[in-house]
Amino acid sequence: MHSLPPCPSCDSAFTYKESDRLVCPECGHEWIAGEPVQVDHGLNIKDANGNPLQDGDSVTVIKDLKVKGSSLVVKVGTKVKNIRLVEGDHDIDCKIDGIGPMQLKSMFVKKA
Q: Which of 61, 64, 76, 66 is nearest to 107 (CA)?
């Protein structure tokens, strides 16, 4: 039995061959066997001023933000610590004191 290499993106062992390509069923990554593979694991997210953000950074809110489904408001100047970057429209996962867990758009924060 011939074993195929693991996925270079997620290290899954369940790769399979489809014509001249290798495919990972878990993450959907496709590549050609024997060719160098470039995989970008990081997200390129920037704050309102264009500064790159990373997991664990602290940010400050630059605009009053209404919290959907409640009467709460995240005020200008609120400092949010230990952010986590995620994919999507709201690309920052965080926990705000007095409000709880929520997602923010990077365009409404600046790096603290």
A: 61
Q: Residue 31 is encoded by which pair of tokens?
A: 């590549």
In single-letter form, the type of residue at position 86 comes to V
Instruction: Locate 90 and state its tokens.
Output: 């709201």
Q: Which residue is associated with the tokens 């953000």? A: 53
Share of the chain above pLDDT 90, in %: 50
pLDDT tens sequence across 75-98: 999 999 999 999 889 999 999 999
Average pLDDT over residues 33-61: 83
- Residue type at 81 in one-letter notation: K
79 near 94, Cβ under 8 Å? no
Structure tokens at 55: 């997991």
CA-CA distance, 4 to 33, in Å (whole number)? Answer: 9
